[in-house]
Specification:
Length: about 700
């Protein structure tokens, strides 16, 4: 229900002596266009038309933004009038000049409101864009019809298909806005602009009548080029081609028909599961930031970072910290390793310079923040130290003993271990409250995920500091508990085992990889193994061999490859062949022969798998272990598992993550699959108690996500 008083407050209209009706949207945090805002805006325009004293209208946003877009939380619920397209049409139809003065975000529906106004300005620091595509949508309040009329088909398609934001200057160049506000104060600049327009008796100027599509031939060519490119690049996605269709309608149909067409396409997008998946991802990646410790404690300041180890991870972590403007002190075993560590970092920057994405002076500035040492004493005054040495508990404990000795009181001591027991590492020092896991993903300067692994004794302020650090490094932090592999690698081990079982039972690794790619992952599990290097997993398997349940199924195919020295890309062959350093592999008949031999050795008669069955097993394994991780409190909520897989494991974003996907296909169906698979291998396929409980209650994973 709407509270009219509240609505009054959310959209305030003030008629000034100079005849300008200032309409201020005040709907924190981003002035999203919820039903109250739409009603308020509509009423304000009615008032402007009805009152003679009004000579012009100025629309501004209160707070940090103009308008962040439609209210995403309303999608999927019963629509409440007036619709946003109606509001935009009413603004455009206003008989008095309407000016939009933009600061901060004018995104999606926010930009569409501005496009419906008759004149627009933006101040420096504005972000304009039509990012609906990132949510599985298209601009549905006239954006697909007005934008190409205003700035031409090609520029409009680029904005809508990329979803990118443009600043005030580029918006001015594109013709999205008429001017850049000279003072930077949107209200003051907007008022000055409106006064000028009144003085010049400027007419209303409707975007629907703009001539951006007049050059029909080039518009048609732009649309066709966009269609070809989109079919190739976004083949898994639903909304991008609908955007192209909508722009075609803008070219071919009168404005009002085009709007109707846009509406139909928009509703199709709203109904698509991709919209639900992408919007889930949008909220989930914000929700993960709100770990309980971030509310309970104040972060410690982190103005300097130490990194132990300059290998693959140490170098990547150092780059991430340098890029965030932090000074980094790297400690290595000896001068040669230190020089290699520095060279790893320089190589990253040289790559960027070569591609023109970094200037030489910027590289020099980043490198000037780096210092190296072979002595731990160099870390005496550092605020946060991240250890990235060999994956060996004794080696790590020795490093932590050194840190305990040299680091100042209050320094945060972090480990980047992938699997090891961080509680044990913490227990080995005199200050366990300062010890935390910061699990970066390779390449650490690029991958967005940061698992913040929270051991039993760590201080809440240390956890809060880790979340603050993630923000600085532009990482997406997910809180995880201590266990073998934390959230991501623990779940990975299980679905990788499911893939191994299928391989031994009759599916080729190439079919499995293809099916997984078709599902939307960039790579299948065997391609991933080849990329990461088979030796790492092999070492882990050998380490765990003694502890393995002798009754549990163990597929030896990967061991057979490793015994031959086939570790993947770095050795030129693994599950695939990589002739002459090729980065994409080709299927290897010798691997197929080894797989056949292993099947025979295990006494298995191979059977055929459909791609659908492969995905059902692969996903059921992932979902079941994801549920265990939530059940045990290793992940706070299902959405934390989703974000882990979206940002660390290439899970297709439009499916929202494994737990969201489970809800989409129905948890009862997933459970039925697990129970059916358990008939063959009850040890491996043990339904998670959490799934059983949710299915019994008729509930889904989403019901566990609303904790904040
Ligand atoms: N609807 C509802 N809530 C929104 C929202 C929206 N459009 N945009 C942001 N929020 C919420 C966030 O969920 C967050 O909530 P929380 O505090 O409870 O976690 C809060 O607002 C603040 O958001 P951010 O943390 O992202 O704040 P920032 O200051 O970092 O960024 C922003 C602000 C640039 C506006 C960013 O929030 C953003 O990109 N928002 C989405 C923009 C967008 O995609 N708009 C298009 C919507 S679809 C549409 O308009 C359809 C139309 O064509 C019909
Ligand atoms: P790496 O072998 O590339 O680098 C390790 C570095 O540590 C080497 O340069 C070595 O000289 C140095 N080192 C070893 N002992 C040292 C000591 N006592 N003092 C100072 N330096 C020492 O290993 P990588 O891949 O960088 O892994 C490091 C850690 O990160 C491991 O714990 C690993 O499990 C973890 N990790 C690895 C990921 C990966 O994809 N490679 C992903 C996430 C975590």
């Amino acid at each position: 229900m709407t509270n009219p008083e509240l609505a009054d407050d959310i959209v305030r209209s003030e008629l000034r002596d100079d005849g300008i009706l200032v309409v201020t949207l005040d709907n924190p945090p981003v002035n999203a266009l919820g039903v109250d805002v739409r009603r308020g805006l509509l009423a304000a325009i009615e008032k402007a038309d009805a009152e003679r004293a009004v000579t012009a209208v100025l629309i501004v946003g209160a707070g940090r933004n103009f308008i962040g877009g439609a209210d995403i939380r309303e999608f999927g619920k019963l629509p409440q009038p007036p619709s946003l397209p109606e509001v935009c049409n009413r603004i455009e139809a206003c008989t008095k000049p309407v000016v939009a003065a933009i600061h901060g975000a004018a995104l999606g529906g926010g930009l569409e409101v501005a496009l419906a106004a008759h004149y627009r300005l933006a101040v420096e620091g504005s972000k304009l864009g039509l990012p609906e595509v990132t949510l599985g949508l298209l601009p549905g309040a006239g954006g697909t019809q007005r934008t190409p009329r205003l700035i031409g088909a090609q520029a409009a398609l680029d904005l809508m298909l990329s979803g990118r934001h443009v600043g005030a200057k580029e918006a001015r160049t594109l013709g999205l806005v008429d001017r850049i506000g000279p003072t930077g104060d949107a209200l003051a600049d907007g008022l000055a602009y409106a006064q000028e327009l009144i003085a010049a008796r400027a007419p209303v100027r409707r975007t629907r009548d703009a001539a951006g599509l007049a050059e029909r031939k080039s518009s048609r060519a732009a649309i066709e080029a966009a269609r070809t490119e989109t079919s190739r690049k976004s083949r898994d996605l639903f909304s991008p081609l609908k955007i192209v269709d909508a722009v075609q309608a803008a070219l071919e149909q009168p404005f009002d028909d085009g709007l109707r067409h846009e509406r139909q396409l928009f509703l199709q997008c709203i109904d698509s599961p991709q919209r639900a998946g992408l919007i889930h991802a949008f909220f989930a990646e914000r929700e993960v930031q709100k770990a309980p410790e971030t509310r309970a404690a104040k972060p410690r300041p982190i103005a300097s970072v130490g990194v132990i180890g300059g290998g693959t991870m140490g170098a990547g972590i150092a780059v991430a910290a340098l890029d965030a403007g932090l000074p980094v002190t790297m400690v290595e075993r000896d001068e040669a390793s230190l020089a290699r560590g520095r060279a790893h970092i320089e190589k990253v920057y040289d790559g960027l310079v070569a591609k023109g994405r970094m200037s030489e002076p910027a590289k020099a500035a980043a490198m000037s923040r780096w210092t190296g040492s072979t002595s731990y004493d160099a870390l005496a005054s550092i605020d946060l130290v991240i250890e990235a040495v060999f994956e060996d508990l004794d080696v790590k404990k020795a490093v932590f003993a050194e840190l305990d000795r040299v680091c100042k009181p209050g320094a945060i001591l972090a480990t980047n271990t992938s699997y090891l027991d961080i509680d044990a590492i913490a227990a080995s020092v005199s200050r366990p409250a300062d010890v935390i896991g910061l699990h970066f993903f390779s390449p650490a300067n690029i991958m967005k995920l940061l698992e913040v692994v929270v051991p039993a004794q760590v201080g809440a302020d240390v956890v809060a500091s880790a979340f603050e650090l993630a923000k600085k490094l532009r990482k997406v932090p997910v809180r995880a508990g201590v266990c073998d592999g934390f959230i991501g690698n623990r779940v990975l081990a299980v679905y990788r085992a499911a893939a191994d079982h299928m391989m031994e039972d009759g599916a080729s690794p190439y079919q499995i990889d293809r099916a997984v790619r078709e599902f939307g992952f960039p790579m299948g599990p065997f391609q991933v193994a080849d990329l990461a290097g088979g030796d790492i997993g092999w070492a882990a398997r050998k380490r765990r061999a003694a502890a393995r349940d002798p009754e549990a199924r163990y597929v030896q195919i990967a061991d057979r490859l490793c015994e031959r020295g086939w570790f993947g890309q770095k050795t030129g062959r693994g599950f695939y062949l990589y002739p002459e350093g090729a980065r994409t592999g080709t299927p290897d008949p010798e691997v197929e022969a080894i797989v056949d031999a292993e099947r025979a050795r295990a006494g298995i008669t191979p059977r055929a798998f459909t791609d659908d069955e492969i995905i059902r097993r692969y996903m059921a394994a992932m979902i079941n272990e994801g549920a265990n991780v939530v059940h045990e409190g290793i992940a706070l909520r299902p959405l934390d598992v989703d974000v882990t897989f979206l940002y660390g494991y290439g899970f297709p974003r439009h499916r929202g993550g494994p737990m969201k996907y489970a809800d989409t296909v129905g948890l009862a169906n997933v459970l039925a699959d697990i129970r059916a698979f358990a008939k063959e291998d009850p040890r491996f396929w043990r339904p998670s108690p959490l799934i059983v409980e949710l299915v019994e209650r008729g509930a889904d994973f989403a019901s566990l996500n609303h904790t904040s």
